[in-house]
């Protein structure tokens, strides 16, 4: 059996960590962390994941994080409605999908390959990806 790739998720909301692990445990080896300091500690021990996903904002307490999440969810729904009304949502989704596809093409192993490129080997591809994205996205 092929070894699962290891994915680390850093998020200060326990519900997000639990949901992510539940949704992806069958396909990946999942490790979850409540704070970036925990990940840094693991990295200093020489450990590393195949992919690291990290929340952007961290709060002192879970209630503060939940409150912020509610505000962001509300704003997100408002933005999605506005995009739909402007008939922009399909265009944006398509563009994001194309960007993700380009990124994966640049840095991920070919289908059927279990090897992941080390970061230094992927850097030339990431630079090419950056140049391709710079020409792909509007400057507005």
Task: Using the alpha-carbon principal axes, give the shape.
Answer: globular
Mean pLDDT: 74
Order of helices and strands: EHEHEHHH
Name the assembly state. single chain
Write the layout of secondary structure elements.
Blueprint: E1 6-10, H1 14-24, E2 29-33, H2 36-44, E3 51-54, H3 62-85, H4 89-107, H5 119-136
Parallel strand pairs: 1-2, 1-3
Helix pairs in contact: 4-5
Summarize the structure.
The protein has 140 residues and is mainly alpha-helical.
Describe the structure in your own words.
A 3-stranded parallel beta sheet has the order 2-1-3. It has 5 helices and 3 strands, in the order E-H-E-H-E-H-H-H. Mean pLDDT is 74; it is low at 106-111, 116-127 and 133-140. The termini are far apart. It has 140 residues and is mainly alpha-helical. The longest helix has 24 residues, at 62-85. The protein has a domain at 89-140. The chain has helices spanning 14-24, 36-44, 62-85, 89-107, 119-136, and strands at 6-10, 29-33, 51-54. It is 58% helix and 10% strand. The relative contact order is 0.10.
